[in-house]
Design brief:
about 160 residues, flat, mainly alpha
Length: about 160
């Protein structure tokens, strides 16, 4: 899309700032998901990850945004997130008849030798669920933003809805 079609001029300061902030925002989103001393940051981390992509799309346009986050990668993140979230529950159901006691056995999960039983349960189930929620939220928000941006572009160009 040319600057004349966009309706605004290119701003180098905003583009350079976005290029600097994009990886830092992604890193902060991962910190919220993993580095806060426990589980429970999946939704918040996912929204921060999505905000990094939405900032990039807003500044550079949705064509360059699609290069950064193609639809195939977006669908992969949605599917992987749901798989991890649902998989954590199914692992507990399949291996222990609806309880998470199988995590107490080092034969199934050898990490218990290093971090203890409670640490391994938190690591496997808690982080697995947190990552699943984060990936799903990030992919869903980015997908919704792309859908709204394309609809707006079609309406601006006089295309059919």
């Amino acid at each position: 899309m040319t600057p004349r079609k966009r309706g605004y001029k290119r701003d180098v300061i905003i583009e350079v700032t976005t290029n600097l902030m994009f990886p830092l925002t992604l890193l902060f989103g991962l910190y919220v998901m993993f580095g806060t001393g426990g589980t429970g940051g999946g939704f918040q981390g996912g929204t921060i990850l999505a905000s990094a992509y939405i900032l990039y799309i807003t500044v550079f346009g949705h064509e360059k945004g699609r290069e950064k986050m193609p639809e195939s990668v977006n669908a992969l993140f949605k599917s992987l997130g749901l798989f991890l979230y649902n998989g954590a529950g199914w692992i507990c159901v399949l291996f222990s008849l609806a309880t998470a006691q199988w995590l107490n056995m080092p034969a199934f999960w050898p990490v218990t030798d290093y971090v203890g039983i409670a640490g391994s349960r938190s690591f496997l189930v808690g982080y697995m669920i947190s990552v699943g929620i984060g990936l799903t939220v990030m992919a869903a928000f980015v997908s919704q933003y792309f859908d709204l941006a394309w609809k707006e572009d079609d309406e601006m160009e006089g295309g059919e809805e």
